[in-house]
Amino acid sequence: MKWLVNMLTSTIGRKLIMALTGLFLILFLVVHLSGNLQLIKGDGGRAFNLYAEFMTTFPLIKVISIGNFFFILLHIYTSAVLTQRNRAARPVQYAYLAGQSTNSSWASRNMGVLGTIILVFLIVHLRGFWYEMHFGSIPTQNYDGKEVKDLYTVVKATYAQWWYVAFYVISMIFVGFHLLHGFSSAFQTLGLNHKKYTPLIKGLGYAIAVLIPLGFAIIPIVMFFQRTDW
């Protein structure tokens, strides 16, 4: 057991944790996006409210949700530890040489900054929706004799505010950059490098970095322009 602890707390072990938790969180984003797209279905929020009710009451989903929060915290903590180790190993930053930036992408050099911005967004987002869903006073809707919380109304009111929509869309741009480097980097950490498959992985990474943030960003934009109080 000690060897496992030593391995997981080593630099290589922590990079492995970053890779695995990162890939899990990307999978979560795909599932979360599929659910959030119910917001623009045009049925007055019925599909989304039923989806939200299922996601917050089904026992297995509740367990997965707890695991998801754990992986988010583990991902953040591991990132902070690796960043601190890198700084300690190189206390004096090297001066940039001409053309040095071509060896790495802007996203790869600023993953810490991107992660911090995304963390701020996540806190604001969870406070506005997750917290309200679980602890706020939310009106209910009756669907076929079943009373469910009307989270759609809360989301609709939030996305009617231009500043929040702008904040959301800008945050998704940062998420895109974070995914752009994080996806391919995770496969490199796992040792899945091959001249035949690496280009496919990078291509998939680009698609994920564009489509997932774009999908999320479209939702508040559409709901903002669907307002009836113009």
TrEMBL record:
Domain of life (superkingdom): Bacteria
Transmembrane segments: 12-34, 54-77, 111-130, 162-183, 204-225
Record's keyword terms, sorted: Membrane, Transmembrane, Transmembrane helix
CDD domains xref list: SQR_TypeB_2_TM (cd03498)
GO cellular component: membrane
Coiled-coil residue spans: none
NCBIfam families: sdhC_b558_fam
Protein name per the record: Succinate dehydrogenase / fumarate reductase cytochrome b subunit
Annotated source species: Thermoflexibacter ruber
